[in-house]
Amino acid sequence: MNRVIKKTVSNVFALKIPRKCFCSQAVKVDASTNLLPSNEHEKKPIISQIIPEYDVAIVGGGMVGMALACFLACMPMTKQLSVAIIDSNPALSSGLCIKKEDPPDPRVSTVTPASISFLQEAGAWKYVEQNRHAYFKKMQVWDYTGFGYARYDAGDVNKDFLGCVAENKVLHSSLLSCIKDSDFKTTFYPSRLTSMTLNTNSMSVVEENTPSKEPSPAQGHASKLELSDGSSIYAKLVVGADGGKSRVRELAGFKTTGWNYSQNAIICTVEHTSANHCAWQRFLPNGPIALLPMGENFSNIVWTMSPTESNDRKSITEEMFLKDVNSALDYGYGPHPTSSSLGARDIFSWLKMDGTLSANEPFEIPPKAIRLASERMVFPLSLRHANSYATKRVVLIGDAAHTIHPLAGQGVNLGFGDAYSLSRVIAEGIALGSDIGEVNLLKKYEQERKPANVTMMAILDGFQKAYSIDFGPFNFLRGAAFRGANFVSPLKRSIISYASGERKLPIFF
Ligand SMILES: Cc1cc2nc3c(=O)[nH]c(=O)nc-3n(C[C@H](O)[C@H](O)[C@H](O)COP(=O)(O)OP(=O)(O)OC[C@H]3O[C@@H](n4cnc5c(N)ncnc54)[C@H](O)[C@@H]3O)c2cc1C
């Protein structure tokens, strides 16, 4: 009988079938709606009353939700878990194939060395390397006042690179390929979470593994999730990886703190005459502009500005837009800084113990953009942080827990850190025979990630505010800070190590 039921729920979209399903007389559901695209389920008759149950339901199969699935797939303790991933993004069910020759996407992420090592450990990074990506060894940061600049080189911290830029679609499809190529039991639901009934009763994994104590929904140790296509599932642990407007966060009643910046980011891909190998960021009066290498002759632009400016710049001609970009990365708004600005060497010479490689590098002008290679997209920017990340049976990761300003390219990296930490906490819980939805276990994840995320958010918010002030003496101080970052070696090494995700707190000396 059990075999018949399992066969019934075999999913054309499922990579693997769920480990077990529970029949419930109390809850009527059209099983076919679990398994077919939402437009098809309307045509299908009700075939049985089945609600599948999973160990973990990941709501949101974006980069962070998929990273969690990968991390769970690669550990002996967690690879036995049955996992449902709920997301209506067609890329998940179609398994969208990315080709190297595809036109570059405007959405990219700068991935830190710490995130790269997590993804390597999970076996996902090799797929990223098969597609367009760009490791960068050097970075230059400066501002429009001409008072200061800082150059960073991976050699300053004896590393091969500072980070790697990859298109979001490449990261996403690499994580998907990694899961597909594993023998992990994952079922994709091409749908959206609409409501959730939390069940806060406990059950240990030891109990679950005892055949005579086979759990059932009636015993009540799993939460029920209802999806937009009318289907339902049960899960012992619900992970909210559903982005900044998280439905899981809302349904579970997590409060947030935050605000909207009166800024938008305009992003796009541009082409140069030759390859760019450096990450460039210039702070302008209305926000920073970044030019990030993407591989081949492409770079990505992330330009923060007022909403009015972003709307204007989205609609002006390509020629005018490229002129604006090239001016913003060159002489526009103010002069180039020079090595002698502020007499920086004299100011900081007393602190200089051993010089970094990059301290002597002169200021460079970024390569010119000659062509727009993608559409221009505009994103409103905000800061939002969930006051708590975990409650019984529900936990938040990625943008669902924290949304930050993109000026340092850290958002998805914090999310990868969350996913990695949560996967370890789940493994620990299984090893101890605990219920993986137990709040005391999930709070361990929160205790590990919250300080790291809050610190990064505070630093980036401080930067955003510091650059919202255009006032002579303050501009001078900011220039001095750039100079300090360039010439004071321990500070410079600490900044690189913190931005690389290798140090939890920015302790500078
Ligand atoms: C302009 C810009 C530039 C950025 N650059 C960088 C960078 O260089 N480096 C970096 O680290 N970060 C960067 N970020 C941040 C980064 O993009 C985000 O932190 C990251 O995308 C968050 O991933 P996520 O998976 O948590 O959420 P999302 O990417 O938002 O994914 C959430 C997923 O949940 C799904 N979903 C939503 N609601 C539901 C529901 N009810 N049911 C089921 N599924 C649902 C969505 O379809 C989506 O697939 C940037 C952000 C912006 C705006």
From TrEMBL:
Name used for this protein in its record: Ubiquinone biosynthesis monooxygenase COQ6, mitochondrial
Primary localization: mitochondrion
* GO molecular function terms listed in the Swiss-Prot or TrEMBL record: 2-methoxy-6-polyprenolphenol 4-hydroxylase activity; 4-hydroxy-3-all-trans-polyprenylbenzoate oxygenase activity; FAD binding; oxidoreductase activity; oxidoreductase activity, acting on paired donors, with incorporation or reduction of molecular oxygen, reduced flavin or flavoprotein as one donor, and incorporation of one atom of oxygen
Question: Assembly and interactions?
Answer: Component of a multi-subunit COQ enzyme complex.
The regions listed as transmembrane in this protein's record are 56-78
Species this protein is from = Medicago truncatula
Primary gene name: 11446703
Q: This protein's superkingdom?
A: Eukaryota
Q: Where is this region: Disordered?
A: 205-224
Q: What is one Pfam family matched by this protein?
A: FAD_binding_3
Domain FAD-binding, residue spans: 229-328, 377-453
Question: What do the Gene Ontology cellular component annotations say?
Answer: extrinsic component of mitochondrial inner membrane; mitochondrion
> What keywords are annotated for this sequence in UniProt?
FAD, Flavoprotein, Membrane, Mitochondrion, Mitochondrion inner membrane, Monooxygenase, Oxidoreductase, Transmembrane, Transmembrane helix, Ubiquinone, Ubiquinone biosynthesis
Give, as one word, the top-level EC class: oxidoreductase
